[in-house]
Every structure is written in structure tokens, then in C-alpha cells.
Amino acid sequence: MSFSLETLTGLVDFNQQSLLLSAFAIAFNPTFWNIVARREYRTKFLTRAFGGSAQTACYGLAAAIFSLGLLRDFLYERALRDQPSHPLLQGDLPTYSGYTLLALGNLLVISSTWQLGITGTFLGDYFGILMDSMVTGFPFNVTNAPMYYGSTMSFLGTSLLYGKPAGLLLTAEVLIVYLVAIQFENPFTAGIYAKREQQRAKLGNKVEGKKEL
């Protein structure tokens, strides 16, 4: 146990403040948007703040999430610069693997955004902006969370390009945080759409009843 701890501290400099800031930003972002989006769903506080326009409010949250993402990425890169490198993460194989992961990760993120649009990507369903039907084409036929897995791949790719073990540790945090977020988001979103289908069914029954009369 002592040897493992010493080995880890030799690979990662935990005394660097930039590492802690990066770890905080990684955990903060999905926590922030889940709390804000759920409050919006229950109280419509953002919609009211934006003059009653749910779409404008969603765009406002999207801008905030995007900006926080840029800050998180900046802090991650800064943290990697302050960390020690390791020979096993340097050379042609890690470099090519890093570029490949970045390319695939960005492909998942960009194609997901293209399929969903701005409101679909940035929690529009919490604002009452629902899609007509579930998206099943690429990349959603590969994974049900392409934004999250694509982002994780990009973090991993960047850590390999820098050759920093700390990047692997932070990437593991990214994956864990996203997996936790999925456990909260997927059931909640499914409940939103299930509620809509129930309302549609009730409306359909009322229409059928009027026709019979």
C-alpha cells in the first residue's frame, strides 16, 4: 500500500494548485448544469428571468455551460503543463493514439450536437423544448451518451499527447463524473418524455370521445 502511494505521488504532483483547480472544474460543471436545469424544470426561474422565453433561457444556459467547458479545458491544459511526464506516455504510439482519440472524441461530440441542435444538446427538454422523436442515428446508434464519452476520449487523448500521468487521473475523474451524471439525467429525461406521451394519450382520448358524441 505504501509502495503504491509512493509510486502514485511520484507520477502525479498533488502539491500543484492547478491540479486541484482542474479537478474541481471537472466535478463542478455537470453538477452545476444538473442543479440549474432541474430547478428550471420545477420553477421556470430562468424562463422568467429571460422574459418568459424558454428558448432564450435555454440559449443562456447553453452559453454558460459552453463557457464553463472552455474554462475547464483551459484549467486541464494548465494542470498538465505543471505535471511531470512519464517515458511510457511519450513516443510515437502514445502520440498517434492521442490524436486518434481526439479525432474520434470530437467526432462524437460534433455529430451529437449536429443531430440534437443547440436546445437538444443543452438540456432543452428541461425547458419544455422537446424533440418530436428520439434520435437513433449516428452517433446515438453507437452510444447513448456520445457527448460524454466523446469528451472523455478527448481528455484521454490530450493526456497522451502531453505524456502526463496526471492527465490519466483527471480523465478517470471525467469518466466517473459523467457516469454519475448519466445515472441522474437519463431517468429524469425519460420521465419528461413519458409525461408528454401521457398527456398526448389523454388528449387523443378526449378527441376520440368528442368524435363519438
Sheet bearing the most strands, described? none
Q: Categorize the overall geometry.
A: elongated
Q: How much is the average pLDDT?
A: 92
End-to-end span in angstroms?
Answer: 77 Å
Q: What is the succession of H and E elements?
A: HHHHHHH
Could you tell me the radius of gyration in angstroms?
A: 21 Å
SS strand fraction: under 5%
**Roughly what percent helix?**
over 70%
Structural class: mainly alpha
Count the E strands. 0
Tally of discrete structural domains: 1
If helices are DSSP runs of H or I spanning 4 or more residues, what is the number of helices?
7
Q: Please mark out the parts with pLDDT under 50 across 5 or more consecutive residues, or reply none.
A: none
List keywords for this structure.
77% helix; 213 residues; mainly alpha; 7 helices
What does this structure look like?
By secondary structure, the protein is mostly helical. 77% of the residues lie in helices and 0% in strands. It is built from 7 helices and no strands. The protein has helices spanning 2-11, 17-43, 45-49, 54-81, 92-121, 146-162, 165-212. Helix 2 (17-43) packs antiparallel against helix 4, helix 5 packs antiparallel against helix 6 (146-162) and helix 6 packs antiparallel against helix 7 (165-212). It is elongated, with a radius of gyration of 21 Å. It starts with a helix and ends with a helix. The mean pLDDT is 92.
